[in-house]
Structures are given as structure tokens and as C-alpha cells.
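Note to self: user wants both folds in one dump. Writing first protein now.
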Amino acid sequence: MEGLSPLSPGSSAHNTAEPNAEEQAQREAAAEMRRNMMATILDSAARERLSRIALVGPERSRQIEEILLRMAQTGQLRGKVSESQLIELLEQMEDAQAKTSTKKTTIVYQRRRDFDDEDDF
């Protein structure tokens, strides 16, 4: 019985390590395929702009990539996407998010008032 207990935790740890390695390999393969697709969809200037966007906002870059891949899969793209076309897509995304977002940013200044402020004069 004592001989079995050290083997059980070791074997379970080994089994959990394998799926993580497989999942990591699948994620890397998917990321590589995504990069290859983006390289075929975008021209060099648009790819550079998208990489700069990814530095600032990775989530926004991911959304743009999703849209571009969907457009390519449905046949909406004719040739490579130029930087100006990417800018237009960004503006359309911004407008769509502004329409769906009803939250308006406002700044309210609250000044402190002392009890005797008005009675000084």
C-alpha cells in the first residue's frame, strides 16, 4: 500500500502535464495559422499598423483580426487590405462601439466648502 501511494500522485501529475503540452502546442499552431492568414490578408503597411495597435490594445487588435478573418472567409475581401482600408475599418468599429455604448463620460468637479466661507465678508 505504501508503495502505491508515491506512484499515484506522480502518475496523475504526469497525465495532467501531457494535456497542457498538447493544449499549448494546439494554441501555438492556431496562433501560427492566424499569423499566416493575416500575412496573406494584409499588406505590409497595414500589418505594421495592426501590430502597433496590438501593443496599445491587444483586445482591440484581436477584434480587428477576427473581423478581417471572417471577411476573408466569406469572400468579402478583394485582394490585400491596405492601410487606408484598415483605417476605415477601425473608424467603422469606433462608430459602432459609440452607438452601442450609451455610457457617456462626464467629469464632475466637487469643490469643498468650509462652514464659514460665505460669512467672511
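First done. Writing the second protein, which came from a different request thread.
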Amino acid sequence: MGSVALCIVYLVIISIAYWAYRWRNPKCNGKLPPGSMGLPLLGETLQFFAPNRTSDIPPFIKKRMERYGPIFRTNLVGRPVIISTDPDLSHFIFQQEGRLFQSWYPDTFTEIFGRQNVGSLHGFMYKYLKNMMLNLFGPESLKRMIHEVEEAANKSLNRWSTREFVELKDATASLIFDLTAKKLISYDAEKSPENLRENFVAFIQGLISFPLDIPGTAYHKCLQGRKKAMRMLKNMLQERRVNPRKQQTDFFDYVLEELSKEETMLTEAIALDLMFVLLFASFETTSLALTVATKFLLDNPLVLTELTDEHEAILRRRENPNSGFTWKEYKSLRFTFQFINETVRLANIVPAIFRKALQEVNFKGYTIPAGWTVVVCPPAVHLNPNKYKDPLEFNPWRWEGMELNGASKHFMAFGGGMRFCVGTEFTKVQMTVFLHCLVTKYRCHGIKGGDIVRTPGLQFPNGFHVQISKKNEVKQDTTS
């Protein structure tokens, strides 16, 4: 019996050793990029999500670039991963969307955003939804919307100027959410019996958390926030079906029209997931961008002066000084677009873009096995000293003479390829109009907070509290 038990123990040890060896040395028909697969099951997940306060390339990425080069392998949340900090490979991945690679997200993200969300759909269905979204975010729609954006920005800034200070991230999130929800579903926070935004706040707080669905955990609160928000959206959709409008006034009306067509590809589940993702993406990322942009303005007086001069010049050129902000004026703001590009380049709000290899891919002597996750790392591209001189310096003038729209090998703040963000222009319109209203009518200075932490996504753990005052008024300094 003793020898049998010894043999079993021996076999178990051999099996574990072989499994650990296979974990660290995955099968591949060619040459895998160098790297480490980390601990069995866990991989290097903890190191990847470790908080850091640097504006540079995330420490996890930078250390491995220095050790392995611009293309390396690792393991995150139990999945084998190739990480690309190489501009050529990253560009190639975007250009081969739908052929060699496709959009991919971890199962926890799919559970959170919905299995029918636009980011998880491919091929013709994705193109169909993209065309639907262009109905909301296309140039003609934005031209009509620009006055609403200006009205909302002026109203919010005026309200904030009556307060001692405001927490800017939360305040701009509320502004953007209310504006977007109005265009999407005619939602009015002041008239609605339920607070839709509160459910999204709960959702966001648990978005990047350990996926443990137990009451009390951040992940559980995240799922509950989604369920409540989806229930509200479904009730609104059903109510609109019962009481349809004679004319299209929002995106819900357009969706209902699509759902009523006989041969439509759209389902109610896909439509609701689309609404959810659009509401989340528009207000969370844009409010972060606006908060970082304001921080950069306050930290760089020369930039603030240049931006203010450009916008005040618009006011001087108007025949009617009380006329609203126009599309022509928006398109004329060269320095503002340089400022926005520099803001999103340095902020790196989206630190990683996920794809999956559909088949075995060979690139620069390395093999990417079929089924492996591929992560494009925008910070490594945006902070490359070979492309951007003094990459950690905030310098909007570096964009003079450069293309300010679209994506390239060296700029992918809004994605790239077929999945270049449809809402990019919408984001730029909101940022530009807000900045126009801010710098022409108000003064702003920081009170407290403003510290940035990345996990790896950008956060303001202590908020960013600022004081807003009208230019013709003087407020007492609350920092003394």
C-alpha cells in the first residue's frame, strides 16, 4: 500500500510539474514573443492592475519593454496575451480587423456591458449598428446639436459659479450625462421619478474590480447598477411603443422605427445594450477628458492664454455679440484641436485596446497563436520619444502642421481601423463648446485634489475640486 501511495504522490507531482511547465511554455507552431506567463491561473494580473501615479508608460508595460522589447507575452486573468507597444504591429492589428483579428473583451466585461453590446458584435451586424450611431453622431446631427451643448454648458457653469467650489469630474459627468440622455432617450433628470445616472455611477465604481458576484462587493454593485439601468431603459422603450411620437425627436424614436421594419436585424436586446453602452461611453470618457483638460489648463498658463485668445477672437469677429456658437466657428479652432489632441495623448484615458487573433499570425519573426488575446497599448505609442519630443511635457504646439483628425500609427486615442470611435466628433464638440464657455466667461482655479492614479485606467481618487467665478466677479479664496 505504501508503494502505491508513493506512486500516486509521484504521479501527482509529475502532473503538476508538467502542467506548470506547459503554463510557462505554451504550445506554438513558431516563435512566441519573449515574456513571462506569471503564476499558474493568476498570471501577471495583479501586477497589471497595480495602482500607479506616473504619467509615463505604465510601470508594468515599461519594465517588460525594457526586458523583452516592444512585443511580449504575458497572462492576464488566466488568458495568454500578446502585448503590443510596437506602432507597426498595433497599426497592423487595426487594419486587419475582421480578417486576422477581432474585437474582444474579458468575460466579465461582456457580462457587465451585455452579450449583445456593440463592442462584442462583428461583421455586418457591427457595421449596421455603426451606421445607426452615425445617425446620432454624424456631422449633420452635431450641427443641429451644437446650440444645445452650448446652452447646457452655460447653464451648468453659471450654476457652479454660485457655489464655493465643485468637484469637476462629478460635475462634468452630470452635465454630459444629462445632455447625452436627452438626445438618446429624452431623459430629464429633474422630471424623472428615478435617477438613471445613479445607477451608472454604481456601475462604474465596480467596473474594474475582482469579478466576485457576492452582495457587498464592488462587482456585485456594478451588476446591480446595470440591472436597474437596463430596467429603466426597457420601461422607457415600452412606454414609447405604447405612446409613439409623430416625429423623430431622439435616438429612441429612430430605434423604434428600425424595430418596426419587417426585415430588421435589430432586436430589443441589442437596442437596449446599445443605449446602455452609448450612455456609459459618452459621459464617463468625456467627463474624464474635460477634467484632465481643465487640470492641464490650470497647470499651463501659456496654454490657457493661447486658448482664451483664440476663443475671444471668435467673439470679436461676430456681427451679433449675442449670437450662439456655430459649426463654422467650431471648425475654425485650430489651437483648440491641438489642445484636445495633446490632452488625450498625454491622458491616455483608454490604456489598453483588446483584440483576439482569429488565426495564426506571423509578424516581425514572432508567431501569435490563434485564439490568443492581443492588447494594443496606446500609452507606449503616445509617449514614444522617437515620435514625440519630450513626450511627458504638455505641449499643444507640437501638433502644428500635423493631422488633427483620425488615427495613425502614432496616435490612437480614439481607437483605429474599422472600429475608430464613432463618437469622436461628438466628444470633441462637447469639449470645445465647454472650453469656449469656460475661458470666455469664467475664471477657474484649483482648490484641492487633482491627483491622478491609474489602475491602469485614469482616476481622480480625491476628486478635483475647483472654484468657478464669472470674469466680472471676485470670489474670496477658500484655500487660505
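Dump finished. Worth passing along: The CA atoms of residues 2 and 268 lie 64 Å apart.
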